[in-house]
Amino acid sequence: MEKFWKLCIIKAIKKQMDHKRVISNKIYWAVAVVVLAVAAYLYLGRGAVPSQETVKAAKRTITQEVSATGNVKPVESVDLAFETSGRVESVNVKVGDFVSAEQILASLGTTELNAQLDKADADLASQKTALGKAEVDLNNYYGNIINTVNTAYTGANNAISIKLDVLFLDDESNNPKLSFDSTNSQKKTDSENQRFVIKNMFNAWLLEINLIAASPSQTAPEQALYDSKTNLNGIYGFLNLLMDTAINAVSLPVSTLAAYKTSINDARSEIDSAAANVTTLIQNISSQKATIASKQAEIKSYEASVDNIKAQISKTFLRSPISGIVTQQDAKVGEIATANSVITSIISRGSYEIDSHIPEVDIARIKIGNAAKVTLDAYGNDVVFEAKVISIDPAETVIEGVATYLTKLHFVKPDSRIKPGMTANIDIVSASHDNALSLPQRAVQKQGSREFVMIYNALAKNTSSTEERSVTTGLRGSDGYVEILSGLSEGEGVVIPRLGK
After folding, report:
1. By the 8 A CB rule, do 66 and 304 touch?
2. pLDDT tens across 340-380, in order?
3. pLDDT at 274 over 90
4. pTM > 0.70: yes or no
5. Among residues 100, 145, 82, which one has the least CA distance to residue 312?
6. What are the E-state strand segments in 365-422?
7. Which residues are registered as beta bridge partners of 347?
């Protein structure tokens, strides 16, 4: 500016000198003074044209971003191996093939295992047949319960009511009496009381028999069988008591006493026979239950053997746990595959994520769900992909002495251009404020913890028309602007300090 005005003055003087023959010296100097005065006013009058850069406070969107780099990885990837060793029998895929979940990729020979399975299946079937026969036999035994109990009841009732009828008077009444006296009066009384008890027992026994005939369950008949054994034992005890009483009979002819003893012994024989039938059936049922339990345990063992062989056979098939692309396939038909040695790798197709280690100074500004813009080195900065933060590892990873946190970002849309292993440049939007009053960050000065700006007064007439004013700043945008929370109004002019000042 100074050079410009000097040049103007020189040109004006030269022009005047060129015309000095026409214009008088007085006019010449007057013109020169006027030109000098104008130049001095324009050059020195700083109140009209400021020499410093200014900017007006205006509203805009402030976006804060965290920049980072990372590597593209498939969302899912698996390395697969056989769980058992064996000769490879088939290979069904090659590198680059798309496979679906549970698809068989390769298999081992199973001839020996199939033979073992056939034998185990046959043994299991045999055990099941034996179990079925045992269950049929048990059901037959249960079917005999009613008949056995009925027979026992009938035989016992005949033995007591018919064979002992001559030993008692009014034996079916509530007060039966022996037809003879005994030297042991207590046994005589006990015998008479027991005869009454036996009478009531027969009534309850018959009622139980009638009830189990209509019962569909096995529990009631089996209980009746055990009750019959108890009843028979009670009757037998009564007969023993009666025999002791008869032996001590008073004034009985020898022939009569002999006849009484014969009747008691015949009753005993009848009860023994009924009790033997009941006991045999109880033992048969108990034994058959034990046989069934044993067969059931054996069947479980055989089933476990079958399941174990099937599990071994299943391990001879290499299946894909995910849908994706085959990236490695080293299995060859006829070769021996070693257990747990990786032969096939698969990555998920079309679904990728980015692993990035964010330094601790930036991690506090990032949250799960933050949007991000991603460029890949392979395609340059003009191709932008959208992503979002899906996880932040809570544990730090120290890289070159700096604490970082593994942050995963997921691409929002599938894109065939994205490939695993690519280098990604990431700008994560950590915060954004719309319609925020803002200034360029370099317009805000700091003095200790205090922040301030220099307000420019365009109406002032002197050269130092600025006002220092404290401000409160907010979000600092990635584009060089800073949010002004207080201390400034929209449209106010602010001086931007010169660099180095």
Report:
1. no
2. 999 999 988 778 899 999 999 889 889 999 999 999 999 99
3. yes
4. no
5. 82
6. 371-376, 380-399, 402-411
7. 77, 325
Is the Cβ–Cβ distance between 191 and 176 less than 8 Å? no
The answer to whether residues 159 and 271 touch, using CB atoms and an 8 Å cutoff, is yes
In SS3 terms, 263-295 reads as HHHHHHHHHHHHHHHHHHHHHHHHHHHHHHHHH
pLDDT of 150 reads: 94
Q: What's the rounded Cα separation, in Å, for the pair 108 and 335?
A: 10
Closest by CA to 418, choosing from 373, 464, 352, 469, is 352
Lowest mean pLDDT among 10-14, 181-185, 207-211: 10-14
* 270 Ramachandran zone, left/alpha/beta (phi>0; psi -120 to 50): alpha
The pair of three-digit structure tokens given for residue 326, joined into one six-digit string: 């085959």
Burial class for 29, CB neighbours closer than 10 Å (0-12, 13-18, 19+): exposed
What's the CA gap between 388 and 367, in Å, rounded? 10
Structure tokens belonging to residue 225: 């069988």
| Tokens of residue 174, six digits | 């509530």
157 burial via Cβ count (<10 Å: 0-12, 13-18, 19+): middle
Alpha-carbon distances of 230 from 35, 200, 212, 271, 499, rounded to whole Å: 147, 14, 17, 12, 117
* 8 Å CB contact between 374 and 381: no
Euclidean distance between CA atoms 340 and 191, whole angstroms: 85
Cα Rg of the chain, angstroms? 57
Q: Is the separation of the CB atoms in 260 and 193 below 8 Å?
A: no
Kindly tell me the sign of the dihedral angle through the C-alpha atoms of 160, 166, 168, 169. Answer: positive
For residues 168 and 4, what is the distance between their CA atoms, to the nearest angstrom? Answer: 160
- 28-37, 264-273, 320-329: segment of lowest average pLDDT: 28-37
What is the number of other CB atoms lying within 10 angstroms of the CB of residue 281? 22
Question: Residue 114: enclosing H or E segment and its boundaries?
Answer: helix 111-158
